[in-house]
Automatic annotation (TrEMBL):
Top-level taxon in the UniProt lineage: Eukaryota
Domain Immunoglobulin: 6-99
Compartment(s): Membrane
Cited InterPro entries: CD2/SLAM_rcpt (IPR015631), Ig-like_dom_sf (IPR036179), Ig-like_fold (IPR013783), Ig_sub (IPR003599)
The UniProt record lists the keyword Cytoplasm: no
Keyword Membrane belongs to the record: yes
GO cellular component: membrane
Protein keywords: Glycoprotein, Membrane, Signal
Native organism: Horornis vulcanius
SMART domains reported for this sequence: IG
Name used for this protein in its record: LFA3 protein
Length: 180
């Protein structure tokens, strides 16, 4: 009987990506494949052997996980980890999606009492949004930031920072551009 497990994972172009493998038993033999083509293998205590173009940007870890350095769009696909624990074969399958990371866009609206800044980034996964104001040491979580009009200093710059995984991008707007 083989145990098969499948997991969808997301990586960002230019990042290093490690497949989330958590196996606590000893692996006698490990083989990683991408779309059925061998990427890396290790038998026992031997050094890993790497295959194909992806092999030049891959690193097989002791505990069986595979890291791909400097992800490219072409790295997307179905990956399979096959390992033998001296009793039976096990299979872990991953579908890797590789995404470009967007720059955020800032818009602003003014009402009678406040200035509202909005940060938008079109991305398939949920992002972590943070605001920083040039005249304030605090950072503010969220996609939207409201400032009472009486507190708006038109020399202030507002920066929206988006983060996913290890990558972050930011955009800045001067509040004078928003002031009525």
């Amino acid at each position: 009987i083989a145990h098969i497990y499948c997991n969808d994972v997301v990586g960002i172009v230019g990042e290093n990506f490690t497949f989330p493998v958590e196996i606590d038993q000893r692996m006698v033999e490990i083989v990683w494949k991408k779309n059925k083509d061998k990427v890396a293998e290790r038998e026992g205590e031997n050094e890993p052997t790497y295959f194909g173009l992806l092999g030049y940007r891959s690193l097989l870890m002791e505990h069986g996980s595979l890291t791909i350095v400097n992800l490219e769009k072409d790295d997307a696909g179905t990956y399979e980890l096959q390992y033998w624990d001296s009793e039976k074969d096990h299979y872990l399958n991953f579908v890797l999606v590789v995404l470009d990371f967007p720059d955020p866009k800032i818009s602003c609206n003014t009402s009678d009492s406040e200035l509202t800044l909005n940060c938008i980034a079109h991305f398939q996964e949920s992002l972590n949004y943070t605001w920083k104001l040039s005249n304030d040491p605090h950072s503010y979580p969220g996609q939207e930031l409201s400032i009472p009009l009486e507190n708006v200093d038109i020399t202030t710059k507002a920066t929206c920072i988006i983060k996913f995984s290890q990558t972050e991008r930011s955009s800045e707007i001067s509040l004078i551009q928003c002031h009525p």
